[in-house]
Design brief:
Elements: H1 2-18, H2 20-40, E1 44-46, E2 49-50, H3 51-81, H4 84-89, H5 95-125, H6 133-157, H7 164-181, H8 193-199, H9 203-215, H10 231-252
Antiparallel strand pairs: 1-2
Organism: Phytohabitans aurantiacus
Protein name: Transport permease protein
InterPro entries: ABC2_TM (IPR013525), ABC2_TM_bact-type (IPR047817), ABC_2_transport (IPR000412), Nod_factor_ABC_transporter (IPR051784)
């Protein structure tokens, strides 16, 4: 069973790496954004907190959303449109192996992307890595829950577009809007109150907040809307989105357009 998942995951990774567009957009985009924004916005948001420190947390969260949500919401409709899913469904391969392969691919690409983002931020812009085991553990569970939620939502959202051509046009605006309202490009508390309330419904805002608790000083928690990191709430909402995503996957996923 595990061997099947590993082989399917290796296949998915090879297919991903063969697509230059996927590699550039999924892996290079967050790095390019850090290089641009960190080079332009060099001031401190608050004493002891540079814009780079703040921005990199949003870019890590964006990277997780891109590889988990956006890439799957685009990849799967393309495979469905080409008849790949229909052919797979007609083989003896258990359906779960297909999804396991996607999960392995997402996890592998996410790890590489996080390492690259941290290396660029530390090497070029002086980002300070967490200094305690507790913060690294927080980084781990926020990443795991956030990536799981994004992956499940990406699989579920793949059923929205009926054609491969419409997949990018459907998924990309959703991802961009969430980035702008979730405190990725701007300090979250500088956004209008109604925008903060909308963002709080979705997981990206909580992923960013959880990662800020890892990379920013504890004193910065006072700048959050609730005046604290609210890590318990972060975990609860991300876990809720994992459950919501799973239910949506089970109810909406289609192997072919005629179903």
């Amino acid at each position: 069973m595990i061997g099947l998942a590993q082989r399917q995951g290796a296949l998915e990774i090879r297919q991903f790496l063969r697509s230059r567009e996927s590699v550039v957009f999924t892996m290079a985009f967050p790095v390019i954004m850090i290089l641009i924004f960190a080079s332009i916005f060099t001031w401190d948001i608050t004493p002891g907190v540079s814009f780079t420190q703040y921005f990199v947390t949003g870019m890590i969260a964006t990277g997780l959303m891109t590889v988990g949500f956006q890439s799957l919401a685009i990849q799967i409709p393309i495979e469905r449109d080409r008849g790949v899913l229909k052919r797979l469904r007609g083989t003896p391969m258990p359906p779960w192996v297909y999804f396991a392969g996607k999960v392995v691919m997402v996890a592998a690409i996410a790890v590489v992307e996080i390492v690259v983002l941290l290396a660029v931020s530390v090497g070029l812009f002086g980002l300070e890595l967490p200094s305690t085991v507790g913060k690294w553990l927080t980084f781990g569970w926020v990443t795991l829950l956030g990536l799981t939620a994004c992956t499940l939502c990406g699989i579920a959202f793949s059923s929205v577009s009926r054609t491969a051509r419409g997949a990018t046009a459907t998924a990309t605006p959703v991802a961009l809007i969430l980035q702008f309202i979730s405190g990725v490009f701007f300090v979250f508390t500088d956004l209008p109150a109604w925008m903060q309330q909308v963002a709080a419904v979705f997981p990206l805002k909580w992923m960013c907040q959880g990662l800020r608790s890892v990379f920013l000083p504890d004193a910065f928690a006072a700048q959050e809307p609730a005046g604290s990191w609210e890590l318990g709430k972060v975990a609860l909402i991300l876990a809720a989105w994992c459950a919501i995503g799973l239910v949506l996957c089970l109810r909406t996923f289609r192997w072919s357009l005629d179903r």
